[in-house]
Protein: Mannitol dehydrogenase family protein
Amino acid sequence: MSAPRLARPDMVREPALRPAYDPAAHGVGIVHIGAGAFHRAHQAAYTDAALAEAGGDWRITGVSLRSREVAEALNPQNGLYTLLERGAEGTQARVIGALAGILAADPAATLEAMCDPAVKIVTITVTEKGYGIDRATRGPDRTHPAVAADLAAPEAPAGVLGLLVAALARRRAAGIAPFTVLSCDNLPENGALLRDGVVGFARLVAPELAEWIAAEIAFPSSMVDRITPAPTAQTLVDAERLTGCTDLAAIETEPFHQWVIEDRFPAGRPAWEAGGALFVADVTPYERMKLTMLNGSHSMLAYAGFLAGHRYVRDVMADAALAGLVQRHLAAAAAVLPALEGIDLRAYAEALATRFANPAIAHETYQIAMDGTEKLPQRLLNPAVCAEEAGLPLRPFAFAVAAWMRYCLGECDAGETYALRDPREAEIKAALTDHGRDPGAISLALHGLPGLFPEALKSSASWRAEVEDALSAMLAEGMKGAIGRELARLEPAG
Ligand code: CS2
Structure:
């Protein structure tokens, strides 16, 4: 007999796996834009812990801006889903009750949900490219499809900036107190950046609103961390085994999780500390630490690892040479960071290496490799500028950037081709046409992509020489050969 479809907490075979509260007894207080696996493994799990410990009307209406997949899996289950935590010692399950439901590809209903007086917070995970904010001007990026569409029809928005501005405008006009806006993406000073983007968008469509948003709306920054691979068929099999229910929305993640948040929530917030969230006055140093060390080394190992034939991060960590370069990168990244009270960066680096090596997590290097042009600045380029300013070695960052450049060719050493999956893919391809495999020309072309590389690197002869040297080795000897050669620089013979 097949297992029943998860639809009520009491259907879960093990009572210990059910939410410790009655989900239906709690109203919605949060709209979350970007209800993918990461949100469900992170913010929703913290909210679940807060509901269990402190109660309150803090359930979440999730929004999928484009896809219907998550809604189709979750809505028939009343928002319930299994969260698997996979560690070296085994897999733990837990059923999360924090999501009330998902709105899929329905901007009008999303806007309505955001205008509900009961909603006190709008949280967001749309990845770096989802916001449509120009990082140089910090205003709306008019070339971003959703931004362009929303600027043309601001009364019927479908993108993040447009929805936020329209919802805040409507609430203000109706005399409803505004919500707090909480970005949970891997962007530096994500709250301040989003605030600038929203205020900039408002200036273009409703100037009188812009100053009010700037003065009245809280955009706390937050640092989020939990390695969450895309769920697979095995995720669903294990969820069913552990809960006794068929769960088409099950997801999996690692046991570790971290959330550091600026405590500025004028309309109130859930007791996220119940799930372990840390509230601080300034998130910036935590954000920088995570982006530079975790995400920086992730990007390096994703480009080098993918091209060396490693499908998963755990395979990279089982390759002694590449794991050695991950250690080198972590140390170089730590060296450009200011001291952080109460945090031992060496211990943090060790913990990261252990997390990356988690044998139970199948995190694809190809997944991390996507959207390089959106990720490189905060993960590798800004840290490289800091290294240059401090007179520290540039090589680890240059090797990582060379691996990205090699990846941009779209072809493995064995000749197999792949899609870059980068919003600037077409531009990258155009820049690289006619350059064949000439490292100098490739480096020159990619350094010339508008707005990507900081001037300090573009004009640094030593930086460019390091990048070209590493890229030459990758092209001449293949990625595996180049990794071996790079490691030999670290461990001189004799
Ligand atoms: C990864 C992140 O895909 C990526 O680019 O570096 O998603 C990483 O897994 C998370 O930031 C971990 O918190």
Remarks:
- Residues 23-280 form a domain with the Rossmann fold fold (CATH 3.40.50.720).
- The two ends are 66 Å apart (CA to CA).
